[in-house]
Amino acid sequence: MSRRKRMMEHLEQDIRDFIERETQDNIERGMSPEEARYAALRKFGNVTRVKEETREVWSLVWLEQFWQDVRFGLRGLHKNPGFTTIAVLTLALGIGANTAIFSLIDAVMLKKLPVKSPQELVQLTAVGPYGVSSFSYPGYQRYRNENHVCSDMLAIGWLNRLEASVDGQAESLEGRIVSGNFFTLLGVGAIAGRTFTSQDETMLQHNAVAVISYAYWQRRFGFDPSIVGRNITLNRTVFTIVGVTPAGFSGPEIGYSPDIYVPMTMEPAFHDKPSWLDQPDFHWLRIMGRLKPGVGQEQGRADLEVIHRRVLADIPSKGWAPADYQQLLSQRLEVESAASGIVFGLPKELSLTLSILMAMAGLVLLITCANLANLLLGRASVRQEEIAVRLAIGAGRFRLVRQLLTESAVLAIGAGAIGLICARWAGDAIVLLLSVGRAPLFLDLRPDPRILAFTGAAAVLATMLFGLAPALRGTQLDLNPVLKASAVRLGARRSHRGLGSGLVVSQVGLSLVLLFGAGLLVRTLENLETLDPGFDRKDVLLFDVDPTKGGYEGPAVTRLYEQVLEHIVTIPGVRSASLSMMVPITGGGGIDNSVWVEGYTPRPNENMTVYVNVVGPRYFETLGMPLLLGRDFSSRDTETTTQVAVINRTMARYFFGNDNPIGRKFGWYGEDKNRTQFEIVGVVKDSKYETLREQVPRTIYLDCFQRTIGPMTAEVRASINPAAVISQLRNEIRAVNASISVGGFSTLEEHVDDSLGHERLMATLSGLFAGLAVLLACVGLYGVMAFAVARRTNEIGIRMALGADRAQILGLILGESGRLMAVGVAIGLPVALVAARLISGQLYGLKPADPLTMAGAVLLLAGVAALAGYIPARRATKVDPMVALKYE
Amino acid sequence: MSTQEQRERIELLQGTLDLLILRTLLLGPTHGHAIAKAIEMRSEDVLQVEQGSLYPALHRLIKRGWISVQEGTSENNRRAKFYRLTARGRRQLVVETSKWDKLAGAIARILRPAEQEGKS
Questions:
Q1: How many helical (H) and strand (E) elements, i.e. helices and strands, does chain B have?
Q2: A668 and A674 in contact (C-beta within 8 Å)?
């Protein structure tokens, strides 16, 4: 700094010296002293500029000028609060939308796990013809002990329907059962107490210890410092809390944040016998490995694939349908990076959804930029005289462009900051929309450097997009006419108009793309919402019932269920009630099994899978599924009578064609025909099983009172608002037996709605994006038209003076806005059709090139655009010819 | 920084002006006005030095360490700024001169066939 200052002093002195000497020379040439001094100054030229340019040699000038520009920009923005507010808000929306979607992408795909060397972590997946599969515990042990590529491997399994109680207060928790090396492999220590050690995996069953998460420690125990050693009852076993994980750690699975971890050896405390740990064909675990240094994924896969073959060979073929067994053996092993965490179901489709949303948000930002560029063009024309004067007194064009761009950057940075804040809660809202049913989706959306960098980049990009063209255009002036004030209004506008129209056309085109995409997604949601799933979703209450909590087993449980149902139907307003193992539309995870069917000879390797549900009597009546043939289950069907089944129409058609299936027999493939055999007693109407989008699968319903059952879901059809009967339900059930646990109340309608969380998110967000786009496009169109009307005031006046009536003038202006609109649509249409093809996988019940949706989108856009054009057009008709002719 | 036409002229002059300043200072330390004058006189007024380029060029050379600036007393006992060639500047002058010779030679070779009378 001081050197620069010294140099500037030198410079000033030398310039003074220079001018004096030149003056002296001039005097010697015979000029008068005054004349000589003027000549010297003239010869020297612009002193300020020479100083400025010399100062630039000593760098940092750009920084100084940058601050000047920022201050100047802020002053300018402050003087135009209207412009500033609109610009900052629209841009904040554009940037915020992008940041929100990006922060989700970051959380799902980019963010590394907060563990030791996450880049070494890999996830094992067995991929077969019917999708991916988990692993068995014996399988896990083989991979872990026999491989040469991983320094260690961990296993993690889910504890479903986990009920925890502390000091007599019960709640359901998200729990995981993990191998003893789980925490040491990840390199996650305990912030209180200890984590598990490998010994926790060798001490069989008598090792009821648990590690809880930081979030649960806070939520349930309020950071109780004496947490270690406290007891917690999980289902029916008392566990001792031995440690708490650190704050940033939320488990290795993307989208989930477990509350509690227990060691693998405690598995028998959670499931019925036989223990899952001993079964080589029970696949319930996810495996994660840490590759040894220098080992690549492909090398790892090759080694593990060898073990994978051995693991599969360990599975006995007994009990498997040949087709299923073949499928099992054909499973490949995949090794994928798990640096960001284990991908489990949802996140995979989520990444596609997010990519689509990211693209849409990008379009919105483009439209926002086009809109802002238009606003700036308008502003530039207002500032023309100022800029012309500055150019005339010697400001460099580059310098002016830089200053105008700095002003745009100030806008963009302000908008980016607001966008970043909005993005945080927008992201939370999106996660909430995505959190289907009772398991909330957990995504870490805290801004990290990547998100900040993204927002910064978006702001810079936006500045370039909306600021550069107006800045270049604004400083490209023919000075003479501009400075002759009266001519200002003609010369410059013409060039601005072309660019402005181009921007509006592109806004219209991009809006059409978004509007069409949103239309398709909204109609998909509508199709799914109004689709007949085969059951009547209205007025059905669902809740979980578990009589086993009181220690009842076998027939005692059945007896309790029967009593519960008997009591429920006596409640006024209840029409019928039943039980089921599965509620339809679970979104996946149905029970399927291969069958043999009497009188049906399968082709070799024919897929004989059917979907199974275990239900009580009056289930079909309660869900509103009409019986087509035969009868429902009844109280005469008991554990000692013939095992009966009701099948759906699809299954009846498939195996029996037009024959009557009543009285025919089937059974589980691979089981003794005399031991389990079912007689078909009824055929029920088809209904969706796992998802609304699926083709109805072959489905069988078994009678829950003919077998041993555990916790079930109860369905109650009410003639009044289902929620109104909840308290009476609780009372009636308590009257049967106080130990029966009841909870998780919802309605079938909510349940089905929950399964559409994804579709609803897409429809909502794309709708919002499209709405924003159309709004901005209209603002753009309005601006350009208003400008055109103002410019043509004179012409309109002449036309009116020559006898044009208002309708003709209206037509003239509307025609112009219509042309802009038509060009935009013509450009946007093919793009929209291509874009629609990219999202065809998301659609249901309509084609990507759906003409109705396209017509709707174009009409909507045209209507709103006509409105935007109408206001200036009306103003044009109000022109008073006398005033207009005097104008200019 | 400057308008378009002027920037083009500077670009044309930039390297050359640096060279001319260095060459002028080879004769001894002197002040800005004298440098401009010397260049104009020695080129028989063909080259006009613009102050807008001279001072930035001088400071660029100072920054590169090829010349230095110091207080001095001029011929008529007035305090003035003197620019002096440094050792590095001296070496640089050799480099720049040979670069210039190469460039001039190359241009001359290209131009000679077309302009027969050109005798360099």
A1: 4, 2
A2: no
Query: pTM for the whole thing?
Result: 0.72
Contacts of B3 in chain A (CB under 8 A): 391, 394, 396-397
The chain B residue lying nearest A48, using CA atoms, is: B52
pLDDT for the residue numbered A480: 65
Number of domains comprising chain A = 4
Q: Rounded to whole angstroms, how far apart are CA atoms A704 and A188?
A: 45
| Predicted pLDDT of residue A487 | 44
Domain of A216, in residue numbers: 118-339
Q: Do B32 and A14 touch (CB under 8 A)?
A: yes
When CB atoms are compared, the residue of B3, B56, B79 closest to A53 is: B56
Chain B positions touching A400 (Cβ under 8 A) are none
> Which of A9, A19, A47, A54 should we substitute to test contact with B (largest number of B Cβ atoms within 10 Å)?
A54
The predicted-structure confidence for A167-204, as pLDDT tens digits, reads as follows: 888 888 889 999 999 999 999 999 989 999 877 777 66
B52·A53 Cβ contact <8 A:
yes
Is residue A548 within 8 Å of residue A703, measured between CB atoms? Answer: no
What's the gap between Cα A675 and its chain centre? Answer: 49
Nearest CA in chain A to B2: A396
Q: Tell me whether residues A50 and B1 touch, CB distance under 8 A.
A: no
What pLDDT digit, counting tens, does each position of A246-261 carry? 988 989 988 888 999 9
CA-CA distance, A301 to A306, in Å (whole number)? 9
Q: Where does a domain end: A705, A728, A750?
A: A750
Q: Between chains, do B32 and A18 touch, taking CB under 8 Å as contact?
A: yes
Tokens of A122: 């890999």
| Nearest by CB: A14 against B2, B31, B50 | B31
Judge whether B50 is closer than 8 Å to chain A, CB to CB.
yes
Q: Which of B3, B36, B62 sits opposite A396 (nearest CB)?
A: B3
Q: Name the minimum distance, in Å, from the CA of B35 to any CA of chain A.
A: 10
pLDDT digits (tens, 9 = 90+) for A695-708: 899 999 999 999 88
* Residue A853 pLDDT > 90: yes
How many domains, chain B?
1
Residues A106 and A141 in one domain: no
If interface means Cβ-Cβ distance under 8 Å, which residues of chain A face chain B? 7, 10-11, 13-15, 17-18, 21-22, 43-46, 49-51, 53-54, 56-58, 391, 394, 396-399
In a domain, A452, yes or no: yes
Asked if A561 and A428 sit in the same domain, the reply is no
**% chain A with pLDDT above 90:** 30
Q: Looking at the predicted structure, is the pLDDT value of residue A591 above 90?
A: no
- Domain membership flag for residue A819: no
CB proximity list for A525: less than 8 A, separation 6 or greater: A756, A759, A760, A762, A763
Residue B70 within a domain? yes
Same domain, A98 and A52: no
For residue A43, the chain B residues in CB contact (below 8 A) are: 51
Q: Which among A82-86, A283-287, A463-467 has the top mean pLDDT?
A: A283-287
Two tokens at A446? 């805290």
Q: Is the ipTM of this complex over 0.95?
A: no
* Predicted confidence (pLDDT) per residue in A527-582, tens digit: 999 999 999 988 999 998 888 877 788 888 889 999 999 999 999 889 999 999 88
Query: Domain range spanning residue B29?
Result: 4-111
pLDDT, tens digit (0-9, with 9 covering 90-100), for A417-429: 999 988 888 888 8
DSSP secondary structure letter of residue A255: B
Q: What is the pLDDT of residue A566?
A: 92
Domain boundary among A289, A308, A339: A339
Closest CA to A287 of A493, A135, A120: A135
Q: Chain B contacts of A391, Cβ < 8 Å?
A: 3
DSSP string, A562-589: HHHHHHHTTSTTEEEEEEESS-S--SS-
- Residue B7 makes CB contacts below 8 A (sequence gap 6+) with A396, B1
Same-domain status, A329 and A355: no
**What CATH number has the domain bearing residue B85?**
1.10.10.10
**Is residue B118, in this structure, part of any structural domain at all?**
no
Residue A518 pLDDT > 90, yes or no? yes
Determine, yes or no, domain membership for B117: no
CB-CB neighbors (< 8 A) of A402 in chain B = none
How many cross-chain Cβ pairs, A to B, lie less than 8 Å apart? Answer: 74
